[in-house]
Design brief:
Elements lengths: L2 E5 L5 E5 L4 H11 L5 E5 L5 H12 L3 E6 L2 E5 L7 E2 L1 H6 L5 H10 L1 E5 L12 H9 L3 E5 L2 E5 L7 E3 L5 H11 L5 E5 L5 H12 L3 E3 L6 E4 L7 E4 L4 H14 L2 E5 L7 H9 L3 E4 L3 E5 L8 E3 L11 H8 L5 E5 L10 H6 L3 E5 L2 E5 L8 E3 L3 H13 L3 E5 L2 H4 L5 H7 L3 E5 L2 H11 L1
Parallel strand pairs: 2-15, 3-14, 6-7, 10-11, 18-19, 22-23
Antiparallel strand pairs: 1-23, 1-24, 3-5, 4-5, 7-9, 8-9, 11-13, 12-13, 15-17, 16-17, 19-21, 20-21
The structure holds ligand EPZ.
Length: 430
């Protein structure tokens, strides 16, 4: 089993190029199957979640040709099955975007009901509410969701919770419905906007994405397009916090600074310097870090996907900080691991109370999920001594070449597989 071996203590310095947004790419890939014409997608991140979704799409007859590592050509004209197998859903929840995409295109789809996952129970009632409002019969039997409609008809849908997934799934189902759909209380995340822009480039008529109200006028068909995915806000934010925690100086390049505002604001509050240019943000961490409070919220609030990373930084900040998780109930699983590295954190309900310590120390720890795993790597980069991170497969779901990008910033991190590899690493780093 692969692990990361990390020797902490080096300030990370330099420039890092941010890849395409995983969560935009997942939605856009599924939506690309909604036309029979060829779609070319660029800036596709080469990460495990994306590659699993591509396999799920190939399993139903979508033809996917890789042009290069970050560009794919998709053709959905030969889809022969509207059933997404259990295996794919087990590996990646976002396969359920094919439900909205196939229902929109063929008025029928069948997908295994995703279960809970490491970060929470994750219901999909709002997706189903939206499909039903568009006129689909949706039933759940034997662990499968069947959705079917003679025709989909535009509707006025009020989402009870702000949900990225439901907004995306309902938007895809509605683009080829008859008449007008209004989605109220829609999610405003950059990836929702990116999907809307992508669908519009295929001939859809979507207005208001990025606000609470999305208005869609149904069209009878979608056509081929060429599209470049936006940069990954969370990958960028993770490197920005790596700069903060290691007292480094990192410029994240190929980003949209506007998407990073809530992250930059918190870094400023804890004592970092931020310099923005058109498509880059530089984070300099020269002073002692200060405490702050943060609550995760839907965009433009502070993202839940950055909660473990900020907590790692606050663990090394002077004073007491409070981190409140308001999106997913199970996103503090990393706290026990961080405690093994010397952090002083107490979780009560959905709030972590963090008493800053002067240093972390290396330990053998396990990545509990994608973002928490990345956060623990950052903690290890700041820690005294060697840390070994297990279960890095979670991190590889969403970060491309994480270890290599960190190495270019001066980090001592390597992927190891055996005890021998680990001993070699320890000898090398001294
Ligand atoms: C998306 O998950 C992201 N995944 C997550 O990123 C991210 O953490 C999350 O949005 C929040 O920003 C993808 O984009 C593939 P939600 P999603 O529906 O769509 C409740 C990562 O690390 N809810 O916005 O599943 C839900 O329980 C991942 O990259 C309902 O009650 O999140 C949660 O409390 C992990 N009913 C809240 O809404 C529903 O029908 C927000 O969830 C749907 C959601």
């Amino acid at each position: 089993m692969e692990q990361y071996a990390i020797k902490g203590g080096n300030p990370l310095v330099g420039e890092v190029e941010i890849g395409g947004a995983k969560n935009a790419a997942l939605a856009i890939l599924a939506a690309a199957a909604m036309t029979d014409e060829t779609v070319v997608i660029e800036n596709m991140p080469d990460v495990r979640d994306i590659n699993v979704l591509i396999q799920a799409m190939e399993s139903i007859g979508v033809v996917v040709n890789r042009i290069d590592r970050h560009s794919v050509k998709i053709n959905g004209s030969q889809i022969h099955s509207l059933v997404i197998e259990d295996d794919y859903i087990k590996k990646i929840r976002a396969s359920y975007y094919l439900l909205g995409a196939l229902l929109g295109k063929y008025k029928k789809a069948e997908v295994t009901l995703p279960g809970g996952c490491n970060i929470g129970s994750r219901p999909i009632d709002q997706h189903i509410k939206g499909f039903r409002a568009l006129g689909a019969d949706v039933c759940i039997e034997h662990g499968l969701i069947h959705a079917q409609a003679e025709k989909l008809v535009g509707s006025h849908i009020y989402l009870d919770v702000v949900s990225v997934g439901a907004t995306i799934n309902v938007m895809m189902a509605a683009v080829m419905a008859e008449g007008k759909t209004i989605i109220e209380n829609a999610a405003k995340e950059p990836h929702v906007v990116d999907l809307a822009n992508f669908l519009n480039s295929m001939g859809a008529n979507i207005k208001g994405a990025g606000t609470d109200v999305i208005r869609i006028k149904g069209v009878s068909r979608l056509h081929g397009t060429e599209y470049v995915i936006i940069p990954d806000q969370i990958e960028a934010g993770t490197f920005m916090f790596a700069a903060a925690v290691t007292h480094g100086d990192i410029t994240v390049k190929n980003v949209i600074p506007k998407h990073l505002e809530s992250i930059s604001a918190k870094l400023l509050e804890i004592g970092c310097e931020i310099k923005e240019s058109d498509d880059a943000v530089r984070v300099v961490s020269a002073k002692t870090l200060k405490h702050t409070h943060v609550k995760t919220l839907p965009y433009p609030g502070f993202p839940t996907d950055m909660q473990p990373q900020i907590a790692v930084a606050l663990g090394l900040s002077e004073g007491t900080s409070m981190v409140t998780e308001s999106i997913f109930e199970n996103r503090f699983k990393y706290v026990d691991e961080l405690t093994r590295m010397g952090a002083n954190v107490k979780v009560e309900g959905n709030t972590a109370f963090i008493e800053g310590v002067s240093k972390y120390t290396g330990a053998t720890i396990t990545a509990p999920d994608l973002r928490a795993g990345a956060a623990l790597v950052i903690a290890a980069l700041a820690a005294e001594g060697v840390t070994v991170v297990d279960e890095i497969k979670y991190i590889e779901r969403g970060y491309e070449d994480f270890d290599l990008k960190l190495q270019t910033l001066g980090a001592q991190i390597e992927k190891v597989e055996t005890d021998r590899d680990l001993q070699k690493f320890k000898l090398k780093v001294g």
